[in-house]
Amino acid sequence: MAETRDRIVDSTAELFRRQGYTGTGVKQIVTEASAPFGSLYHFFPGGKKQLGEEVIRWSGQMYLQLFVTVAGDAPDVATGVERFFDGAAETLRETGYADACPIATVALEVASTNEPLRKATADVFDSWISAATEWFAASGIARERARELSLHMLSALEGAFIFSRALRSTEPMHVAGAASAAAVREALAAASGKA
Amino acid sequence: MAETRDRIVDSTAELFRRQGYTGTGVKQIVTEASAPFGSLYHFFPGGKKQLGEEVIRWSGQMYLQLFVTVAGDAPDVATGVERFFDGAAETLRETGYADACPIATVALEVASTNEPLRKATADVFDSWISAATEWFAASGIARERARELSLHMLSALEGAFIFSRALRSTEPMHVAGAASAAAVREALAAASGKA
C-alpha cells in the first residue's frame, strides 16, 4: 500500500511541474498513478489540498537534495552553480521543456488564493535560500553577501525556467547560469582580498 | 460597447496576474467586469482561449510600455533598472503581493498544455528581450553582451516575483534589482574601457 501512496505523490509532482495545481484534478492523478480512486482519499483524507501541500514539501526537499548532490560533486562553488543551471537546461531540452521547477507554477497560482499552500511554498523557498546561503558562506563569502547571492541566483533560476519553457530554448538557462557563476566568482575573489 | 470590451480585457488581465489562466472562469471575468455574460462571446467568439491570447499580448505590451517609461525617466540605464525593480517591489507591497508580472503565471501553466497561448507568451517575452537589448546596446554595450544582460535581468525579475509573492517580502525583488543594476554598471564600465 505504501507503494500506491508513493505513486500518487510522484504522479502529482509531475503534473504540478507540467500544468500547475489548478489544472490538476484528482481523477487525472489517480489515472496517472494507476491507483484506485478511493486510495487518494485513503492516504490523503483532506483530498487535493492535503496532497498538494505534501507534494510541494516533498518536491522542494527532493530538489534541494539534487542541488546538494550536484553542488557537492563540483570542484568549487562557482562550478557547482554553473553545473546546476546546465543540468536544468539539459533536463528541459530532454523533456520537451516540460520538466522544470517542481513548485514554481503552483507557487504563483496559490500565492494570493490559498494560504496553506502559499505557506508550504514559502517554507520550501526559505529552505533553499538557507541552504545556498550556508554553502556560499562556507566557502568564505560573508553571510549577508552570501544571502544576496543566493536570492539573486535562485530568482535567476526560477525566471530562466519561465523564459526557457515559453521560448522553447535553453539560452535563458545557460545565460543565467553563466552570469550567476560569474557573480559567485567575483564574490569569492572579493572575499579573499583579490578584488 | 467598446468600453465593455475594455473592461473585460482589463478584468481578465487582473485575474490572470492574481490566479493564473486555469483558475479564471468566464463567469468570474464577466462578474468582475460588470459585463453581461453574452458580451464576452460577442467580443471574443473563441471564448476564453481567444480572450486569453488577446490579454497576454495586451498585458505584455502594457508592461513593456511601463518599462520604457520608467527607464526613459532615469538619468542612466543602471538607475533605470534599479527603479523598475524597486517600483515592482512597491507595487507588490501595496497590493498584498498580488500584483506581479502580468503573464508569468499563465506562461508556466500553458507552456506544456496550450500551444497558441504558449506562442503568445513567447512573443511577449521576445519583445521584452529585444527592447531591453536595444536599450542596453544604445548606451554603448556590445549587442551580444546586451542580450545576455537582458536575459539575466528579466529572469531575475520574473524569479524575484515568485519569491517575493511566496515569501510576502520585497527583499528578493530589491536584491535582484540591486544585483541587476550592478551588472549593468559593470558592463558599461567594461564597454567604456574602464574595466
Total domains of chain A, how many?
A: 1
- Low-confidence spans of chain A: pLDDT under 50, at least 5 residues? none
Tell me the name of the CATH class of chain A: Mainly Alpha
Structural class of chain A: mainly alpha
Order of helices and strands of chain A: HHHHHHHHH
| Shape, per Cα inertia axes of chain A | elongated
CATH architecture of chain A: Orthogonal Bundle
Biggest interface and residues each: A-B, 46 and 46 residues
Query: Count of helices of chain A?
Result: 9
Quaternary status of these chains? Answer: homodimer
Beta-strand level of the residues of chain A, as a percent range?
A: under 5%
Distance between the termini of chain A: 58 Å
Give a description of the structure.
With 195 residues, chain A is mainly alpha-helical. The first copy, chain A, has a single domain (49-191), classed as Orthogonal Bundle (Tetracycline Repressor, domain 2), CATH 1.10.357. Chain A contains 9 helices and no strands. In chain A, helix 5 runs parallel beside helix 8 (143-167) and helix 5 (77-94) runs antiparallel to helix 9. The longest helix of chain A is centred in the N-terminal third of the chain and has 27 residues, at 47-73. Chain A starts with a helix and ends with a helix.
